[in-house]
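[#protein-structures] MJ: dropping TIGR01620 family protein here for a structure pass
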Amino acid sequence: MTSPQDDQRPQDPRPGIRFSDAKPRSPEAPRVDPQPGLRFDAEQPSRQLPVAREGDGASANDPALEPILRPRKRRWGLLAVLAGAAGLGTAELITGLPAALAGGDWLNTGWQILGLGVIGLGTGALGRELFRLRRLKRHDNLRQDLSELPRLSPKHASALVERLRQQLALHDDHPHWQAFSNAREAHHDGRDLAELVQHHLLAPRDREARRLISRMSSETAVMVAVSPLTLVDMGLVAWRHLAMIDRICRIYGLELGYGARLRLLRSVLYQMAFAGATELATDASMQMLTLDLAGRLSARAAQGLGVGLLGARLGLRTQQLARPLAFTPNERPRLTDLRKELWQQLKRMEAPKKGQD
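AK: finished. structure tokens for TIGR01620 family protein:
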């Protein structure tokens, strides 16, 4: 029996709550792919994607490997207009020359003869320029073919090396070609021939080009340091840099004309402006070191150091573009190798001045 006191106890107005270990299931998402299905025709021809090979060294961020030496397509419309104007001018001078001689008009005769001479000289210069541009195009084609040399068969590799010998103007009795021929074997494939070409044919020219870059950049730095005239410095630097580009190209068997020289210079400046990220980081650290070294020199010597480093960098870029076979990452010349030589040259120049003070 329950007591009256139990019936008088207050009851909890809240309803009872039951707890369970089972977790409620979340609503399932509809199993429908939002992307529409793709259907392929079984008879559609397939195309194999190119496989990237390790060790090729091709990188989209490395402008030195881009074929920027490739000449542009000729503008046939402009050439046709120039050729037509030259032809009409020549015909006018030729037809007017007999009439001037018959009438005794010696002044008009002299002007017509002078005009014919100018047209003849211009035609000859244009022909030489087109010939040099054609050689530049052959150099670009050879450079592209040599990039595939390690993967060629012995027969095709030998034919490609023969083209390189013709561009470098190496006769059969040349010491470098003799050393290459003695080291060459019949079983050598393209990779072996590439190493022999690097060692026997291109390495001597690389050393010669490096000595030229070091000497001309050092001389330019010293001349700027001792010259008191800014305009003279600008003309001197431009003249010596163009001369250095011509000499480096001749070392690798490439003769530049006016248009080819401008095109190569523009390509070099383009590479200097859009270098890879790694090279930019290296150049930034080198610039900090240059500022520290320049602080120990006088104002003129510091200007000479900056101009010398600019010339050295321009020369190294030209060497990379003019070289028929691209440098390997370990053999690529560095600007740090030339920095010490420039610094020592300017320090020797300033040593007598400090002794006199």
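MJ: nice. Residues 49-71, 275-282 have pLDDT under 50 and may be disordered.
AK: one more thing. Residues 73-138 form one domain.
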